[in-house]
Amino acid sequence: MSTQNPFSLAGKTALVAGASRGIGLAIGRETARAGARTILASRSLTALAGAARLLRAEGFQAEAIELDVANRESREKAAEALPPLDILINVAGINQRKKFANYTPAEYQRIMDTNLNGIFELTQLVGRGMVERGLGGKIVNIGSLMSVAGLPFVTVYAISKAGIAGLTRSLAAEWGRYNIQVNCIAPGFIVTDLNREMWQLPQMQAWLKGVQAMPRTGTPEEIAAVAVFLASPASNYVTGQVIQVDGGYTTTAVWPYEVPE
User: Fold this and answer.
1) Number of structural domains, the chain?
2) CA neighbor of 87 nearest in space, from 14, 30, 19
3) Domain assignment of residue 4, yes or no
4) CA-to-CA distance for 68 and 48, rounded, in angstroms?
5) In a domain, 204, yes or no
6) What residues form DSSP beta bridges with 62?
7) In three state form, how does the secondary structure of 112-145 look?
8) Which of 23, 41, 94, 146 is deepest in the core (most CB within 10 A)?
9) Angle at Cα 75 formed by Cα 175 and Cα 219, nearest 5°?
10) Which residues does the annotation mark as catalytic?
């Protein structure tokens, strides 16, 4: 019986694209703590350098590089500077809540370039190296509830995240022969600095209690734990999956009826 920890990332090199805050930063911290040499990447190099410095002070391997996923020149420059990667975690994403009819072409393009087009091309650049080395690899994409469901006022975001789910399934089918597993996490209602104010509204908290089994929001760390699993040997037979980490929102419902004691 093997004594190796199947959840360890020791000896692996991971890139977390979009790691400056929220879910991306939590994933970067946990991949480093799981043993991977972790490269934190985003546009906010100063913030990243500080996060990497703190991880190194804990005794882990972490470094920072500048990467604007939406910019082709930035993607190519970062890819050239990267060491061979075993793990790619695509987190970068933006959202803009508007009525569908009011989105401008520029807003549409900005969201799609960040959430889908840039991820597509970065995965091409990094994944090509994984295929050529022949040592396998892990690609973890961060989707959304909008990868599998629909809500109003986030249509362009939903288009991009549905695309991430499609990319995940198709690439898993194509690259499985190279021992590269490709999976997607669809986070539920995770509180970050980008949406904290919205989730403080009493009506939002009351609504959540009526629509999902676990009547609370989630944390970035709860997504990071699943990302580490999907980046580790423990998930070697898991590929092409869109895994909803959402407190049961997409699979459960609750109602006011109670059974008498």
Assistant:
1) 1
2) 14
3) no
4) 13
5) no
6) 38
7) HHHHHHHHHHHHHHHHHHHHHHCCCEEEEEECCH
8) 41
9) 75
10) 157
Residue 80 token pair: 């050239």
Which residues sit opposite 15 in a β-bridge? 39, 88
Q: Please report whether residue 201 resides in a domain.
A: no
Cα angle 257, 204, 164; round to 5: 105
Tens-place pLDDT, residues 90-123: 999 999 999 999 999 999 999 999 999 999 999 9
The pTM score is 0.94
Cα 107 → chain centroid = 22
| C-alpha pair distances (Å), 244 with each of 112, 148, 189, 206 | 22, 9, 11, 22
Integer angstrom CA distances of residue 36 from 31, 49, 63, 176, 208: 6, 17, 11, 22, 36
Handedness of CA 120, 100, 93, 249 (dihedral sign): negative
Residue 114: give the domain boundaries. 13-190+219-245
Supply 113's token pair.
Answer: 């370039």
229: amino acid identity, one letter:
F
**β-sheet bridge partners, residue 90:** 17, 141
Which CATH number goes with the domain that contains 87?
A: 3.40.50.720
| C-alpha dihedral sign at 108, 112, 114, 118 | negative
Question: Rounded to an integer, what distance in angstroms lies between the CA atom of residue 12 and that of residue 118?
Answer: 24
Reported as a single tens digit per residue, the pLDDT across 18-76 is 998 999 999 999 999 999 999 999 998 988 999 999 999 999 999 999 999 999 999 99
Q: Which of 101, 97, 104, 106 is nearest to 151 (CA)?
A: 97
Which of 15, 167, 164 shows the shortest CA–CA distance to 93?
Answer: 164
Separation CA 31–CA 246 (nearest Å): 21
Cβ-based neighbour number of residue 192 at 10 Å: 17
Spell 91-105 as b/e; 16+ CB within 10 A means b: bbbbbeeeeeeeeee
